[in-house]
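Board notes, transcribed. Complex of a protein with 2-acetamido-2-deoxy-beta-D-glucopyranose.
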Amino acid sequence: MSSSSLTLFFFFFFASTFLYTSTNSFNITNILNQNNEFSTFNNLLTQTNLASAINSRQTITVLALSNDAVSHFSDQSAEDNKKVLSLLIILDYYDIKKLRSLNKKSVILTTLFQASGQAKGEQGFVNATVMDNGDVMFGSAVPGSILDSKLIDSVATHPYNISVLHIDSSIRFMNPDGSFDVGSSSKPLPPQPPNDDDYEFDEPPSPPSSTTKPVVADATAATAKPPSAATAKPPSAAKANSTSGVSAISTPNFASAFVISSFWLFMTVW
Ligand SMILES: *[C@@H]1O[C@H](CO)[C@@H](O)[C@H](O)[C@H]1NC(C)=O
Ligand SMILES: *[C@@H]1O[C@H](CO)[C@@H](O)[C@H](O)[C@H]1NC(C)=O
Ligand SMILES: *[C@@H]1O[C@H](CO)[C@@H](O)[C@H](O)[C@H]1NC(C)=O
Ligand SMILES: *[C@@H]1O[C@H](CO)[C@@H](O)[C@H](O)[C@H]1NC(C)=O
């Protein structure tokens, strides 16, 4: 008896670890197939391989666009389409009820684009806000972005695994420095995306509690704090004496001061 339960344990362990894609009970293609209004969007998800990326997740929200709202996608490259569409795939479960009851009326959501490792700054995050009139609006989390994608209704929900929500227009894909921020040379962005993340932890001082959790919880999102501490170090190390002993001591001191002060700032702002 115990050996069969052990066998069962290992079966489910391996099934959930390695085979969860095939044991998933939802299929975004089938969900969207039930409504002709989303046929173009559905085809785009399949063409860009995002449909299988969605199906491989256990907790996901898809912001779906009706056929008229995706007409401009045919003018864009497949690569651009994939970027824009992956910004509509939220790595958490949000149905209408959960959005309407946001305790701070606003939340920053992690998207599949963030998980792709290509996102710079806050490009891979989406801001969802409940407006005073009750409308739920979505926009890029890049500072200065306009929230102009409006939630229309729910297409399908399989709590708490997948929620498909209909929005009226695509979320604008913003440059990391905000598209209206013309002459900002203060923040040179290196071409490697993963190390840009110090920006997102320093810039928004007041994200609600639920914003940082998805980021940390999602192992694929390249948003660990250590890189930001690491990128902050070189200037101080360069200033220190050339004696390696001195810089070896001062660098950890700086790093721990950085971590402690970040933590303090985080707790204060919370
Ligand atoms: C989802 O459904 C589509 C259409 O029915 C099918 O082609 C595809 O193989 C399914 N995907 C999975 C992962 O089952
Ligand atoms: C639904 O989500 C739960 C919790 O994340 C997970 O344990 C379960 O396997 C998921 N079910 C499916 C069908 O993906
Ligand atoms: C979302 O955007 C609105 C409008 O720009 C802003 O007021 C709000 O603070 C943002 N929410 C978060 C959590 O940053
Ligand atoms: C090296 O350390 C000495 C003593 O702490 C200091 O006076 C000097 O300016 C340092 N040199 C550099 C290049 O930082």
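Strands lie at 60-65, 89-90, 106-110, 125-130, 136-140, 149-158, 162-167. Residues 10 and 55 are 23 Å apart (CA to CA).
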